[in-house]
Each structure stands twice: as C-alpha cells, then as structure tokens.
C-alpha cells in the first residue's frame, strides 16, 4: 500500500509536465483556425490556397509518424519530447521571415515544420499517459488530456485575436491597401517570436525535468506479415478509414469556420475556432458522464454520426442571414450576434467529440499481439486533417461556394455511421 501511494505521488509531477505538453499540442494545432483566415485576408488567397495552410500542417503526419517512432526508439521518449518542442521552436522562428517577406511558400514551410515537430512530440508523449500511472486509471488520464487539448483549442484563437487586435485590416469585401497588408504582416512577428522563445524554454525544461524515461522498445525491422495480418481485420482497416474521415470533418469544422466567417463579414473571424472547440470540450465531458452508463460506445458513435449529418444539411441549406439562434442563446447574455450557419459549424464540435475515443477501442478489439501495429495504422488516420480542408477548398471554387462546400462532410459522416452500425462488427472480408 505504501509503495503504491509513493508511486502515485512520484507520478504527479510527470503528469503535470505531460498535461502542459498536451495543452501545447492543442494550442499549436488549433491556432491554425485563426491563422488560416488571417493569412487569406493578408495575402489575398483563394479558399483553395488558404486550405493549403492546413494541408501542409497535417500532411506532416503522413511521412513523419513512422520516422518519429524510429527516432524515439533511438533517443528515448524524454529526448523525443524535447526534440519535438525544439522542432516546433524552429517553426516559430520561420514564421518571422515569412511575415516580413509576405511569402506564402515560407508560411507553408513553417506549417510543415511545426506539423513535423508536433508529430514527433505526440508520438513521444502519448505513451506517458498510459504508462506513467496505474493502468486501471489510464482511461481517466486519457480523457483529462483530451479535455486539455481541446481547451487549448478554445484559448488559442482568443489569444491570437487579442494579440492581433491592432493589426486587423478592413472587412473582407474591402480591398486592402499596401499599408494595411504591411500592418497585418508586422503584427505576426512578435507573437511568433514569443511563441518560439516559449517553446525553446519548454524544450529545455522537458530535457532537464524529472520525467522518468520509459523502457525503450526493441528496434526491430518492420514485419510486413504483421501489417498484412492487421489489415486482414475489417474492423481495424475500416476503423482507420473512419478515423481518417473523422479527422477530416473535425479539422473542417475547427479550421474553416474562420474563413467562412470572414466571407460573411464577421469582424473577429479569428476567434471562431473557439466556438467549435468549446463544443468539443462539452462533448468530451458528456462522453465521460454518459459512456457506458447511458450509452454504449457503438450507440454514442452512431448518435454522433447522425448529429453530424443533420448539422451538415443545416449548414449547406441554412439561411446565412438568419441570427435566430444567437439572438436567443448568445445576445441576451452579452454574446455576439452570429449567423445560424456559423453556429451549426461550431456545434459540429459536439458531434465530433466522441468519435475518436469511440473508434479506437472498437478498432483494436481482439487484435491481441497485433495491437501495436493497429495503433500505428490508426495514428496514420490523422492525415485526414490534410485532405478535409483541401476538398472543402476545391469544392468552394467549383461553384458551390464556401457554404455549399460543406457538403463534402456528408459522405464522411455516412461512413462513420456505417462503421458504428456494421463496420466494427465485421470479422473477415467477403
């Protein structure tokens, strides 16, 4: 008993550090929702060009996830975290010449580098959540870290908007002068310099912190037989696809809402991601309370998919001139008057929140020795965040417009519904 109590006490400081890192991961990820519309206005980008800002961030997962795992096996988890933070610091410094020269390609490079650092940090920090404390309370720690990550998504746009308050130019339907563009670009320098300094200090703090090193895994060659065996399980393979389309719609809801708000003339469009993230935090809390007491994982996933389908239809066919929801729920309490369609996008955060924690156990069920391979494949599903906004951007320029482009989410939610109802039950390909 005394030994267990000592172990719990010794894990408190490491958990505080890990919690801070999860907050940083969320902050860096959901800052994109503010940066994308800001750069679209500053650099006069099309919606498709603006979607490349998100694409370059998330595509890093596709080609750096496996190298990150290899690097961590070489240097250890603790050093891997520090290297991830250092890479993100380098990215923060890259934003400065990008802003000073107003070069879109440099912004894309900075996004790619920060996505690479984020992938390395995430690959290193996630095992700590499970292994740093008692196994029987791992689920509670995972939920807490998820809430911290999404709470950072609420805070990041608010901080960005506050720091950029003096740099906002005219509304979206007014042509910017060269002086206004210069002011917007200059406004990015100090915040990103401060972000780089903070990340650098945090990297040093992690490097010399009391974090215990986890046991290194054996550096063995990849087993194509294991990969083939894992993909032979329909519940896993379809689960990977489900996570891919889920991350696609999650990022569309979180990161394009600011672009859509800009097109509707909303002045503080950079704060809109906070609305989506606040709904996601609410969804996480509801998931902790309701699953499995009231809803099973499968039913919660199905409900989420149906809610996503209904909200997508409301967004696509809704009246952008209607403010009924805001006038009823926000304005009387001092909130901002926002179009109903924007608020529908925000509530997608509630529909999306439970999908990630519900798909994982369903996809990994019964894998046994293939669990680690299955987990690696599921992580690759994060790459959906690169393609969701890109498809939305392509659809925006195809005649559908930004509002109609949200129809690309319909097949995504339909697939999630299929996985919840039938896909996770399949045991063999027919």
Please explain how this structure is put together.
- The chain has 430 residues and is mainly α.
- It has two domains: 1-210, Growth Hormone, Chain: A, CATH 1.20.1250; 224-430, Up-down Bundle (Growth Hormone, Chain: A).
- It contains 19 helices and no strands.
- Helix 10 packs across helix 18.
- The longest helix has 30 residues, at 178-207.
How do you describe this structure in short?
By secondary structure, this protein is mainly alpha-helical. The protein is 76% helix and 0% strand.
Q: In the CATH hierarchy, what is the class of the largest domain?
A: Mainly Alpha
The domain count comes to 2
- Computed CA radius of gyration, to the nearest angstrom: 21 Å
Helix content: over 70%
Any idea what the CATH architecture of the largest domain is?
Up-down Bundle
Q: Please describe the biggest sheet, giving its number of strands, its sense, and whether it closes into a barrel.
A: none
Low-confidence stretches: 1-9
Instruction: Tell me the span between the first and last alpha carbons.
Output: 52 Å
Per the CATH scheme, the topology name of the largest domain is Growth Hormone, Chain: A
CATH-wise, what's the superfamily of the largest domain? MFS general substrate transporter like domains
Shape: globular
SSE succession: HHHHHHHHHHHHHHHHHHH
Number of helices: 19
The chain-level mean pLDDT equals: 84
How much beta, percentage-wise?
Answer: under 5%
* Category by helix and strand content: mainly alpha
Number of strands: 0
